[in-house]
Design a protein that fits this description.
- With 147 residues, this protein is of the alpha+beta class.
- It contains 3 helices and 8 strands.
- It has an 8-stranded antiparallel barrel with strand order 1-2-3-4-5-6-7-8.
- The protein is globular.
- The N and C termini lie far apart (42 Å).
């Protein structure tokens, strides 16, 4: 068996792996924010996971039911407003776009649907940022940085 095709396959594999690493956004440290603080695009880039426990706790504290039908969903916010989601954490599909609207509002636009706005704030728990999204009814969805 010739070593040339084997070497070529090895180089191709290395190039693909390096390309995948290069396309991963840089994750920056996220400070705690309060409503009205300016949030930055850089805070959001990367992978986030639905934090079901913190979502339920935050909603109970706000006077809503803690029993939510919140499925574990993996969110990926890319540069230039690209928004992807996954139910497995491995295979993502594009579902729309995101943007910061004003100081601390995030607008999510799903394909074929009206955009939906949330007030966004960050709170670090155990050295990991949590993104608190509050809808117009005051209900929370909490996302944690995926590890």
């Amino acid at each position: 068996m010739s070593k040339r095709p084997l070497a070529l396959s090895g180089y191709l594999l290395i190039a693909i792996m390096l390309g995948a690493c290069a396309s991963t956004p840089t994750v920056v440290a996220v400070p705690d924010t309060q409503p009205g603080d300016q949030i930055q695009d850089e805070y959001l880039l990367g992978k986030w996971c639905t934090n079901r426990e913190e979502t339920a706790t935050s909603n109970r504290a706000a006077g809503f039911s803690g029993l939510l039908n919140v499925r574990p969903v993996f969110w990926r916010f890319g540069s230039e407003g690209k928004w992807d989601a996954s139910t497995s954490g491995f295979i993502y599909q594009s579902i729309g776009s995101w943007q910061i609207d004003g100081l601390n509002n995030m607008k999510f636009s799903r394909k074929g649907m009206e955009p939906k706005s949330y007030q966004a704030s960050f709170k670090n728990i155990e050295d990991s940022p949590n993104l608190y999204l509050t809808d117009d009814k005051g209900q929370f969805t909490v996302l944690s940085r995926c590890k």
